[in-house]
UniProtKB/TrEMBL annotation:
Keywords: Amino-acid biosynthesis, Arginine biosynthesis, Cytoplasm, Lyase. InterPro entries: Arg_succ_lyase_C, Argininosuccinate_lyase, Fumarase/histidase_N, Fumarate_lyase_CS, Fumarate_lyase_fam, Fumarate_lyase_N, L-Aspartase-like. Belongs to the lyase 1 family. Argininosuccinate lyase subfamily. Residues 7-301 form the Fumarate lyase N-terminal domain. One of its GO terms (cellular component) is cytosol. This is Argininosuccinate lyase. Its main location: cytoplasm. It comes from Hydrogenobacter hydrogenophilus. Its EC number is 4.3.2.1. Pathway: Amino-acid biosynthesis; L-arginine biosynthesis; L-arginine from L-ornithine and carbamoyl phosphate: step 3/3.
Length: 458
């Protein structure tokens, strides 16, 4: 196999160097994007008068044959040809003869790989967006089915205030909606064509870059040829979006792992999505959720890997950029699998409503009791102190607030009346949160209706 640069060299490349520098073992994944780019470049060469119609037709025919073999998994990728670009070009020359050697006219692998990656990013982001939408639909379904289930909300992992479980699921729906916006931003940054920038300085053929961009479905052009071939910011944005998705999935996993323990027993995970122990027969382990949580570290690592690779590069293309692909491919694959895994978990999740509802008199209603005093004219800080003393007293007596008499309440403030006992019911307290985005039944139903419209759920 002849190497495209061998005219300059007088020694054969060491096998070790071939193995060390090859990227086709992983960038072969870009083969369909590379062929799609080649087909567009053929049209550009034809428009510029570099190819005849007959030559263009011949090259297109062979490229489509190669594409079919790639899709069937029968195309013979060779490591000695280094990368996906040279593998496809070498095969094209083999089949079309010397006319195949015209394909690389006015093009460098520098703008070629940048184009392939941008095409790949656009395709994969579309798939991630669909998966996120499916996940959000499942969260909306859960929210709609759990409107009347009350659960404790935790801050500092301590019981804070009662909420509707629907409110919890809608919170994650908002997180995954913001994740979609991050992906869309990465898509927009990638949606510009670098093709026609050459190695670094542009090309000296009469190429219509706008025509090529349109053929490839790009919204615009990368305007500076040096930036076009060395920019990987769109990859960073994609890896960042994947890392944040992973973080959100990890937090949801952590909640469900805790809630599925015997100590909480708020939810039951389906047996088919759990595993057991090799030694302890009673165990039912939430391994899928734990792996989602664990794989988030890989997503962070991939982002930091590429950031570190890029930070020391001199301007324009450097071979270090070959190291951008494996973190990218791994993050895309990991993110998609984790979203799908979480969707399966949520589909099979069952809630133990009898275990989730806080009891009458639970101290989680303390803020509402303080606000009760505020409405009677006491400054909030003073009301906070009074209720804090009241709770400390109840704890010292081994009681919850529901066990106290009105006389005991009045020992802390004469403003307490019989109606204060209404505020010891978590269900009553939840429905007092009627502000926009709150957890009252009325507001949660409104949020669900909006979410269903936005997600296209009937």
């Amino acid at each position: 196999m002849h190497k495209p640069w061998e005219g300059r060299f007088r020694e054969k490349t060491e096998e070790f160097v071939e193995e060390f520098t090859q990227s086709v073992s992983f960038d072969r994944r870009l083969a369909e994007e590379d062929i799609r780019q080649n087909l567009a470049h053929i049209k550009t060469l034809l428009k510029a008068g570099i190819l005849t119609k007959q030559e263009a037709h011949l090259l297109e025919k062979h490229l489509l044959d190669i594409l079919k073999e790639v899709q069937e998994g029968s195309f013979p990728f060779r490591k000695e040809l280094e990368d996906v670009h040279m593998n496809i070009e070498a095969e094209l020359i083999k089949r079309a003869g010397e006319i195949g050697g015209k394909l690389h006219t006015g093009r460098s692998r520098n703008d070629q790989i940048a184009t392939d990656e941008r095409l790949y990013i656009k395709r994969e982001i579309k798939e991630c967006v669909i998966l996120l939408k499916n996940l959000r639909k499942e969260l909306v379904r859960l929210a709609e089915n759990s409107i009347d289930i009350i659960v404790p909300a935790y801050t500092h992992l301590q019981r804070a205030q009662p909420i509707r479980l629907s409110h919890y699921f809608l919170a994650y729906r908002e997180m995954f909606l913001s994740d979609e916006l991050r992906l869309i931003n990465a898509y927009r940054l990638a949606d510009a064509s670098p093709l026609g920038s050459g190695a670094v300085a542009g090309v000296d053929f009469p190429f219509d870059r706008f025509f090529t961009a349109q053929e490839l479905g790009f919204r615009s052009l990368v305007r500076n040829s040096m930036y076009a071939t060395s920019d990987r910011d769109y990859l960073l944005d994609t890896l960042y979006a994947c890392a944040v998705i992973g973080m959100h999935l990890s937090r949801l996993s952590e909640d469900l792992i805790l809630w599925s323990t015997q100590e909480f027993s708020f939810v039951e995970l389906p047996d088919r999505l759990c595993t057991g122990s090799s030694i302890m027969p009673q165990k039912k382990n939430p391994d899928v959720l734990e792996l989602i949580r664990g794989k988030t570290g890989r997503l962070y690592g991939n982002l930091m890997s590429l950031l570190t690779t890029l930070k020391g590069l001199p301007t324009a293309y450097n071979r270090d950029l070959q190291e951008d692909k494996e973190p990218l491919f791994d993050s895309i694959d990991t993110t998609k699998k984790c979203i799908e895994a979480m969707n399966l978990i949520l589909e099979g999740l069952s809630v133990k409503a009898d275990r989730t509802t806080p009891p009458f008199g639970d101290p989680m209603t303390a803020t509402d009791i303080a606000n009760y005093l505020v409405m009677k004219g006491i400054p909030f800080r003073e009301a906070h102190r009074i209720v804090g003393n009241l709770i400390a007293y109840a704890i010292s007596q081994g009681k919850n607030l529901g066990d106290l008499s009105l006389r005991e309440f009045k020992e802390f403030s004469e403003l307490f009346e019989e109606d204060v006992f209404e505020l010891l019911d978590p269900r009553v307290v939840v429905d007092r949160r009627k502000t926009y985005g709150g957890t009252s039944k009325q507001e949660v139903i409104r949020q669900i209706q909006i979410a269903k419209r936005e997600e296209g759920v009937r």
